[in-house]
Specification:
2 copies of one chain form a homodimer. The first copy, chain A, has about 650 residues and is an alpha+beta fold. Chain A has 3 domains: about 200 residues, Aldehyde ferredoxin oxidoreductase, N-terminal domain (Aldehyde Ferredoxin Oxidoreductase,  A, domain 1, 4-Layer Sandwich), CATH 3.60.9; about 190 residues, Aldehyde Ferredoxin Oxidoreductase Protein, subunit A, domain 2 (Orthogonal Bundle), CATH 1.10.569.10; about 160 residues, Aldehyde Ferredoxin Oxidoreductase Protein, subunit A, domain 3, CATH 1.10.599. In chain A, strand 4 and strand 5 form a beta hairpin. In chain A, about 65% of the residues are buried. Chains A and B meet through helix 20, helix 22, helix 24 and helix 25 of A and helix 20, helix 22, helix 24 and helix 25 of B.
Chain lengths: ~650, ~650
């Protein structure tokens, strides 16, 4: 490598069909052009997984790329990217996790791990520095993620782990990979490993990650530690986790999706408030799923991502009559929505138990919750019979029924399990009866906890996101909801104007976060300005802010090109029927929705900002300008 | 300034109306955002010269910005930008010269000189370090550039100079500024100074230009000196100057415009060749204006730009019966066309004399020659009477008539002088009679020596150039004519496809050259890769290649925005009638022309590559992405 530090210049390639294990050089141009993490992953995915490959066949790959900062000690720089063709969307798949295994992989001497082919028998991938082998894993197959992790920690003490649960084994399209209680969740990565019969990975490294300027890096790490410490968001995260703003989203903005997006807020919170006011009382807390209620009450510790400067982890212990005693990290904001709001279930212990179960069984909490919410609506509407629910009384707010449904999904058990195992799009296709009208998804992926009818920039972000309905590809929800951030002023969440550049810019910036492996909750600290010095300290490369944005734009264009090659066009950049046609019925965002003509206008703006064709295809000119001439040849649009 | 070297952080502002002289700080963000030279100049011009300002009124400004490398010793880094609203085009005006005065200005402690307002009486601007004053200059008014320079060198020994000639005084719209025998020529900068009654500038500096890393810079200078020395183009330039490839353009490509663009080559060269072949002879030289003929014969020395590593200067002495004895630097390739090819005048001594006269009188050789060529065609067609030519037999090839015409133009003398003084667009408007059909110009500016009917990418470059028909804004002629360069392969000059990105890319790259003040004849040595190290040595700033291209793109977008604010749109991005409708009649490029539909296709491609609207307006999204939010507000196109 021409760079001084930060990279080993080594790709570890493991073929599960042949058993072949190889170390290959990282292409010379990769560091400057793609930085690392999702940058490497996206480029390799485009190059290595051919168009129309079966996502659950041997041609798909799981490309694991720790971010550039992983293992360097840079605060929040713990994110490892899992890159794959998504079986859920049929397009570009990317899932990030603050995975200990990413750090160990780097310490073992690898920048990238490519897993390809398909094993006949269940296996584990064992990596210890230069010793890499496939180990038969029949005794792991069938275990939950927690059981597998516990067993592995005994057999391979000191190793970091990654495991799929029963849902991944059963090829659920919404199944996850659990990496030491951090989940690479979205888009079905668990099913990809399941299809390869790779139950998990255990990895340990003992090498020292090369750093170009260790003294400078140390200084910067101290500097940033203080910045984080002094930032008000740090305390909020530490006290209440990522759900800290749930009440605000619910009552102030009315954009917290409830009852499978029939409502934009938890009405109960208002009722409670009114009741208190009538009694002359004032309390901060009006619903149970608000962390202001449960975090102080249930938290027993923290299990943050490695090197976190602003740990949002709320490790809780629940001793419940119904669910017994269990511990779980979370629930995150998104899970408080998917198992709380979406199910209209304001019962913290049950929500936490659903979270625990989903992690253990290996299901994406967002996708699983939204799918169950859909089933509840279908049941209440009489579209789903009791026979089809295997006898469950699947009504909103019924926590017991949700727990049963979740278990069935992981095992494809009974009528209900078979119906719901692959997420809401497949479920609605299987059920028919116009149930697609309330199936909440974009490109097959279930949306996170932002009622984008009242956050119109995020509606655009959902529609265009390369991996389906997704808050993290753009990370623009804060800007939209607060109305300003950094370079953005006067953002109006209720209008569909001026969103194109905003979303494209945020996406490019977030791609830089994903390439460095930095947590997006740090974007109010590092912004973009923080990166050039950190990158220089780690690698010796001097990359200015403008060039970083070019790298981000390059990554986003490759991801889009991957989808274009699969046949995605403008028609796929759409929104669920409910978001387009059913206004939020009450509350602060009452009356808002995103009709197709408004979405069309936003798409025009976005494609223009991206320099893409009106059909949403990256132009040859844009791809050439991003120094991607081969992709320009492959898919570039002409005039 | 936050940077370590390269800049003083000082703007010298001279108001000729009030006599006020001020030093102002260079805005903090300028170095990283605009680099220097034309980058500073373009931004300041946009900010300071209001829309619809009279180019010859007090609101116009002459903003003189030495390139970042000027005075640092970096090879060919001698170019100073003269930025102004062009009286010739009514739009963005920029003219570069290897001006000694730029270096002295920097040594005097200024990054930028802004001249504004209008003096009642002729004045000189005197600058010696911190001593800056306006000196009455009645005794200079009326002198030729050479006479004024000679007088100034006596009165202000050791000073660098810049002067306008009689043409500038008489507000000819094609008049130049002569800076110690280097001309800032295109777009009428002479008239801008003439309108301000500023005859000239004398400047001397004694300060040491701040350099961030002098040792590193010294090393790099030696390194590049060797690269230049070993490069084959250096010898060709030294032996024959910029006209070295004239014969190739004429005979191999058939794209050397002759007889006011009625022909794509000098037929005489073929005839001579045939004659020789019949005699069994072989000579390299077939026409007199080919430097292979005249350079060895007439050259008496070299007067290169400061710090030139590949001097193309051919200083010639002509002892002529008709024209007496004179010395002149040149003629350059463009002048061999404008006074040679365009007039079908294969008489070196007369071409050189016309060059000498144009420099002395203060006229742009390209524009003046093309204007006379038009008059010759009009005369031969009977559209121009002998009364209108003041009795001149203004036929092609008539050198004496051309000399007389040129003198008349500079002084607006007689019918012919009044007709031709302001270039070909005004002349054809004054004459009428459909003479516009063979008036060669884009946006009012006369084209250089590339018959773009056979170089279609350059046809696009002519059409879209912010300053009118122009080879230097894109510098793409080499790529087009050779068919490849650097990142470009398989370029087909005969077809109108795939030109949009090519031209946009070249323009952005050339803006980097103009910002650093590097000669474009160095683009085969430095390409883009050479700049980051040089910029770091000079300024301490680490700016990678991708960011440099963003800076170039930013500059080009501001220049375009300047024109948009003046009312320019797609309709102005057009070509002369002859280029669109009259194919090259003979030779290697026979039959080629650029019909409007082909131009339209190229414009579509170019606007797409630029991220502009189909009407050629920079979009808000593009301007925001370039961190130019104020300009986005001013002129940015929506969807």
């Amino acid at each position: 490598m021409q760079v001084e530090g930060g990279y080993w210049g080594r790709i570890l390639r493991v073929n599960l069909s042949t058993g072949e294990i190889k170390v290959e050089p990282l292409p010379e141009e990769f560091p400057r052009k793609y930085l690392g993490g999702v940058g490497f992953g996206t480029r390799l995915l485009y190059d290595e997984v051919p168009a129309k490959a079966d996502p659950l066949g041997p041609e798909n790959k799981m490309i694991i790329t720790p971010g550039l900062f992983v293992g360097t000690g840079i605060g929040t720089g713990s994110k490892t990217a899992f890159n794959f063709k998504s079986p859920l969307t049929g397009g570009y798949g990317r899932s990030m996790a603050g995975a200990k295994m990413g750090e160990e992989l780097k310490k073992a001497g690898y920048d990238v791990l490519i897993i390809e082919g398909q094993s006949d028998e269940p296996v584990l991938l064992y990596i210890k520095d230069d010793e890499v082998k496939l180990v038969p894993a029949n005794d792991y197959w069938g275990l939950t993620t927690g059981e597998a992790r516990k067993k592995a920690k005994e057999e391979y003490p000191g190793f970091a782990t990654a495991f799929i649960g029963p849902a991944g084994e059963n090829l659920s399209l919404i199944s996850i990979i659990d990496t030491d209680e951090r989940q690479a969740a979205r888009g079905g990565p668990g099913a990809v490993l399941g299809s390869k019969r790779l139950k998990g990975i255990v990895v340990k490294g003992t090498k020292k990650i090369p750093i170009a300027k260790p003294d400078k890096l140390r200084e910067l790490i101290f500097y940033w530690a203080k910045v984080f410490k002094d930032h008000p968001a740090t305390k909020a995260d530490m006290d209440y986790g990522s759900g800290e703003f749930l009440d605000w989203m619910n009552r102030e903005r009315g954009t917290f999706p409830v009852r499978n997006w029939q409502m934009g807020f938890f009405k109960k919170a208002y009722e409670k408030l009114k009741e208190m006011q009538e009694k002359g009382l004032q309390f901060r807390v009006h619903i149970e799923i608000d962390p202001y209620y449960w975090a102080p009450k249930y938290r027993v510790g923290r299990r943050p991502c490695p090197m976190c400067n602003k740990p949002c982890s709320q490790y809780v212990k629940v001793e419940s009559e119904r669910w017994g005693t269990f511990m779980v990290d979370g629930p995150e904001y998104e899970t408080l929505y998917s198992f709380g709001g979406a199910l209209e279930l304001d019962d913290f212990e049950t929500v936490a138990y659903l979270n625990y179960l989903a992690d253990e069984l290996g299901l994406d909490t967002i996708s699983a919750g939204v799918t169950i919410a859909w089933a509840m609506e279908a049941y209440e509407r009489g579209l789903l019979t009791k026979e089809e629910t295997d006898g469950l009384e699947l009504t909103f707010g019924n926590g017991e029924a949700a727990v049963e449904a979740l278990k069935k999904m992981a095992y494809r058990e009974g009528n209900l399990g078979k119906l719901l195992a692959d997420g809401v799009k497949r479920a609605s296709e299987r059920l028919g009866k116009e149930s697609w009208k309330f199936a909440m998804h974009v490109k097959g992926m279930e949306p996170p906890a932002y009622d984008v009818r009242g956050i119109k920039g995020m509606a655009l972000a959902f529609a265009v996101s390369v991996r389906g309905a997704d808050h993290l590809t753009s990370g623009a929800y804060g800007t939209e909801l607060v109305g300003k951030w950094w370079k953005f002023e006067g953002v109006d969440r209720t209008k569909g104007e001026n969103k194109g550049f905003e979303i494209a810019f945020h996406e490019n910036l977030m791609a830089v976060y994903d390439a460095t492996g930095t947590c997006k909750f740090s974007r109010h600290m590092y912004f973009l300005e923080g990166f050039p010095d950190l990158i220089e300290a780690v690698t010796g490369m001097n990359i200015g802010e403008a060039e970083l944005m070019v790298i981000g734009e390059r990554i986003m264009n490759i991801a889009r090109a991957f989808n274009v090659r699969e046949g995605f066009t403008r028609k796929d950049d759409t929104l669920p029927y409910r978001i387009m046609w059913e206004p939020i019925p009450e509350g602060p965002s009452k009356g808002l929705h995103v009709p197709p003509w408004e979405l069309d206008r936003m798409l025009d703006e976005y494609y223009q900002a991206r320099g893409w064709s009106r059909d949403g295809i990256p132009t040859k000119a844009k791809l050439m300008a991003l120094d991607l001439p081969d992709i320009a040849d492959d898919i570039g649009a002409g005039i």
